[in-house]
Amino acid sequence: MKKFLISAALVAAVSLSMSAQEKGDWTVGGVIGVSGGTNTYSESVSGDNHSEKSTNPTSFEFSPRASYFIIDNLELSAGLDYTLGVEHFSSKSSLSTNIAMFSIGANYYIPIIKDKLYYTPGIQFGFGGGSSIENDGGDKFPTKIPFALGFSADLGKFEFKVLDYLGISMNVFALDVLYNTIDTEMNEVKANMTTFAAGFNYGMSVGVKYYF
């Protein structure tokens, strides 16, 4: 029994001392954050195109995720992304949206301080749906978003290894693109609308990741 306990302790010590980001590593965790920046919208309603730039957009993010390293330093991930956003336009109107998407992504780990600090740029693709509320001069128009397609590029993401099996990530700068279709009813007229939004967003999202 004593030999078994010693062997088990040695195996545990070796597993904790292994460097993460190696082929075969699994992780689970989540991200929460807030960001802002600029977005440019291109909107089409019944063939009528319109473009407008939003000011001071703010979004809140929550994303539980799991990932797997297919080779050393290259991570593939999958998870759920929930975003709540508020934007204001030059037309004095505002738009509140909440969108949930299933997403997949990839991040590459570039060591800055060996086994401690990494620069981890990456990309994510997602699809899902949600709803929005447009506030136009005090009049509110709720709409459904039956389909949304998203893309994001993590341009300012870093990860710090607190322990060999525990990492904390930070993302301070990203490129976000969102395409969606909207079923709306304004002034008793029903319409199907497609919206394309793209912009650079900055802020702070923080994540915790457990390696096993």
Short description:
The protein has one helix at residues 2-17, and strands spanning 26-37, 39-45, 48-71, 74-89, 93-108, 110-113, 117-119, 122-136, 139-154, 157-163, 166-186, 189-211. With 212 residues, it is mostly beta strands.
Structure write-up:
- There is one protein chain.
- Strands 1, 2, 3, 4, 5, 6, 7, 8, 9, 10, 11 and 12 form a twelve-stranded antiparallel beta sheet that branches.
- The chain has 212 residues and is mainly beta.
- It has a single domain (2-211), classed as Porin (Beta Barrel), CATH 2.40.160.
- A hairpin with a 2-residue loop joins strand 3 and strand 4.
- The model is unreliable at 1-19 (pLDDT under 50).
- The chain has one helix at 2-17; strands at residues 26-37, 39-45, 48-71, 74-89, 93-108, 110-113, 117-119, 122-136, 139-154, 157-163, 166-186, 189-211.
- The radius of gyration is 21 Å and the shape is elongated.
- It is built from one helix and twelve strands, in the order H-E-E-E-E-E-E-E-E-E-E-E-E.
- Helix content is 8%, strand content 77%.
- It starts with a helix and ends with a strand.
